[in-house]
Amino acid sequence: MTDLALSRVLFVGAHPDDETVMAGGTLAMLAARGVAVTVLCATDGRGGEDGGVPEAATPEGRAHVRERELRCAVRALGVQHLILLGYVDPPIGPDDALYPFTQDEETLVAQIAGIIRQSQAQAILTHGSNGEYGHPAHVQVHRAVLQAVRESAPDVWVYGVAGRVPDVEDRLWNISDPAHLALDITPWFRAKHAAMLCHRTQHALFKRRRKLRSVRAAVRTLETFHRHYPPLPYGAAPDDPFAITLIAAGAWLPVRNQ
Could you give the CA distance from residue 126 to residue 156 in angstroms, rounded to a whole number? Predict the structure, then answer.
């Protein structure tokens, strides 16, 4: 077990709102405990829905609105630093087809590696190996983060969000990633709810996906994580600084209970 205290965490997401939906409660908890949290967002979000917000009716307008929403959300979570890579988010295609956002993955890897060095992150949170619900942009970010760490920052721990928990149904679970850690974020619900309210353009989507009537009802109170790097033997308990911090906040170890 390491004695190193957790002081800096980087979240790497594909789109505005990924930070909040996937890990907002955990980011708020970390910030409240004095951890310096940086959020890196790869795309401008213009490919998403406009939610009936007039200023977001065009792709360019939507990109500007979603940046404002993201800045609002990270403030609500207590995040200290926000970095925008500015990749153009591809529009949704026929039959709801989804796409990655760049063909130049080597440049993306280099950018992420530079930000890992800049932020001095000890742990990185990012998308899971299945892209949660299979989103190619999420998978691309997951792959790029792991490559950046292996090549440039091998001492950094990498956790994917939405690790699968036995006997708990959620469309976001990464089916290939059993959760090593699960945290009930109810104590930080207010911050996560406030951040979700910031993402106005996505409110209709938040509610529609689960046939809900309010954004509040769409706030997931269980946030889960699978450690991708360094990998863990099946059933092993993580003991790195991120895991120690989550366990101190009330997280439990679902994998060991399977």
Answer: 13
Q: Which long-range contacts (CB under 8 A, 24 or more apart) does 100-107 make?
A: 100/136, 100/137, 100/139, 100/140, 101/14, 101/42, 101/43, 101/137, 101/140, 102/140, 105/140, 105/143, 105/144, 105/147
Q: Residues 55, 65: contact at Cβ < 8 Å?
A: yes
SS3 208: helix
* Domain count along the chain: 1
Of 113, 127, 111, 112, the C-alpha closest to 228 is 127
Look at residue 2 and tell me if it is in a domain: no
Helices (H), the chain: 18-32, 59-77, 105-119, 131-134, 136-152, 189-198, 203-209, 241-248
Q: What is the pLDDT of residue 149?
A: 98
Which backbone phi and psi does 213 adopt, to 5 degrees?
A: -100, -10
Domain range spanning residue 101? Answer: 8-257
In a domain, 135, yes or no: yes
Share of the chain above pLDDT 90, in %: 93
Question: In the prediction, which pLDDT does 176 show?
Answer: 97
Q: Residue 69 is part of a domain; what is its CATH number?
A: 3.40.50.10320
> Residue 209: is its pLDDT beyond 90?
no
The candidate with the shortest Cα–Cα distance to 25, out of 255, 254, 209, 251, is 251
Question: How far apart are the C-alpha atoms of 235 and 74, rounded to whole Å?
Answer: 34
Give the tens place of pLDDT for each residue, 114-151. Answer: 999 999 999 999 999 999 999 999 999 999 999 999 99
**Would you say the pTM of this structure is higher than 0.70?**
yes
Q: How far apart are CA 111 and CA 184, in angstroms?
A: 33
